[in-house]
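HOLO CASE FILE
Compound: iron/sulfur cluster
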Amino acid sequence: MKLLLNEIFYSIQGEGPNVGRPSIFLRLGGCNLACSWCDSKFTWDPKVSDNKLVTIDSTIKKIKSFPCKHLVITGGEPMMQQDKIAVILKRLPGYTAEVETNGSISSKISPLVEQINCSPKLSNSGNKSYPLKIKPSNKKAIYKFVVQKKSDLKEIKSYIKSNKILQSKVYLMPEGIKRSEILTRSKWLIKICKKEGYNFTPRLHIMLYNDKRGI
Ligand code: SF4
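Model generated. Tokens follow.
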């Protein structure tokens, strides 16, 4: 059994409820969407992809080499390889994990993870709409929306309402791969979060390193 892997590195979580938590990033290859503003095209776009097939044993060995027992499983779309994720997590007792997903694939690994960071992609991503498969009844799910412009809010609010997502589970995140873009968007997005009662999430890694990889 081989895993389509992009990279493994040790950093801090830069987004969502666990911002600032030291984490090992397990970035898997492949995605079933193609967002226009994707900041990790190197995981799925054949023109720039640098994925590799690796063994589960070598992945576990690399994970164990870091002084940390929390994993952020990201991509790409990690749920495309959830059977392999399950094998890895079962072989890492004492580790906690959160998984990032675009919400288009049902989760079979919920019992194995601490949190599911579901980021449904709406029209600003350029993808066709799709049904949400990570249901709000899943107590481990939070919902992160990428906001590019103020007018995105209308669609986001309608999506939250029609999918019956609790306000407290919603995180709005500014789109951008440069510090200056994130700063500019954060200023008006924080005002929107205060007005609507949603959580704001920064993109701490972009604020610190712009779009540099693996740190
Ligand atoms: S779902 Fe995520 S990884 Fe896939 S194209 Fe969109 S932003 Fe990129």
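CASE NOTES: The chain has one domain: 2-209. The longest helix spans residues 179-196.
CLOSED: yes
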